[in-house]
Hints:
The protein is an alpha/beta fold. The protein has 2 domains: 3-98 and 189-228, Periplasmic binding protein-like II (D-Maltodextrin-Binding Protein, domain 2), CATH 3.40.190; 100-187, D-Maltodextrin-Binding Protein, domain 2. Helices cover 37% and strands 28% of the residues. The protein is built from 9 helices and 11 strands. The chain has helices spanning 17-28, 62-67, 78-84, 112-117, 129-139, 154-158, 172-176, 196-201, 203-228; strands spanning 9-13, 44-46, 52-56, 73-77, 89-94, 100-107, 122-126, 143-147, 163-168, 179-188, 190-195. The protein has a 6-stranded mixed beta sheet with strand order 2-3-1-4-11-5. The longest helix has 26 residues, at 203-228. It starts with 8 loop residues before the first strand and ends with a helix. The site of 1-O-pyrophosphono-5-O-phosphono-alpha-D-ribofuranose has 9 residues, from strand 9 and helix 7. 1-O-pyrophosphono-5-O-phosphono-alpha-D-ribofuranose binds next to strand 9 and helix 7.
Amino acid sequence: MSSQDRSMITLALSKGRIFDETMPLLKAAGLDVLENPEHSRKLILPTNRNNIRVVLVRASDVPTYVQYGGADLGVTGLDTLIEHGSEGLYQPLDLQIAKCRMSVAAHEAFDYASAVKQGSRLKIATKYINIAREFFARKGVHVDLVKLYGSMELAPLTGLADAIVDLVSTGNTLKANHLIEVEQIMPISSRLVINQAALKLKQPLIRELLDAFVVAVNERNSALNESAR
Ligand code: PRP
């Protein structure tokens, strides 16, 4: 069954933090995913609603699935969304989950501030080429960008780069590798993205789901505010 079937809604999620933090919101919206992706190799997971299913894709593929209609909607980090571009994607809701920040980090022995001040050309390793290019262009810092697909923290330790642009959450990975966060670029959280054509063709079902998500996010935020008092 393809997601072109008008009576079926397909939600794209990625395993790990996004899946785990989306689950309570789905539950609050009355949706239960019937299989645990950690215990199953299946890529299409049924829910308690026979017209809603979940597909598991790589985090960086969520915008592509939703953009081209392989899924009607999905949950993706703002980092992935910016890198991918948001053409054809309606972004109605910040779910405020999987929160972290995009930062510049350098080795503790590297004087980043002086290098920037002196107008040095910096070598930056990152998975987030577009975010890095835009950030340094706005600062007027000349950079050579080196594209990596993971373990960015290794680049300044091996001489591959002067600094990295990467996600920071607890800061533990930086600390363990003698790196220091020298600039914060932007806060990151996960967004709901919807295929614009699906929004029109499957309007009632998608609207119902979107409204339920909005209520779930508001209720979760109220509960968090309440417990913080
Ligand atoms: C992310 C990021 C950092 C780490 C930061 O990697 O790239 O390496 O988390 O988290 P911390 O500040 O809590 O230590 P992730 O584990 O998601 O894997 P990735 O390298 O595949 O992106």
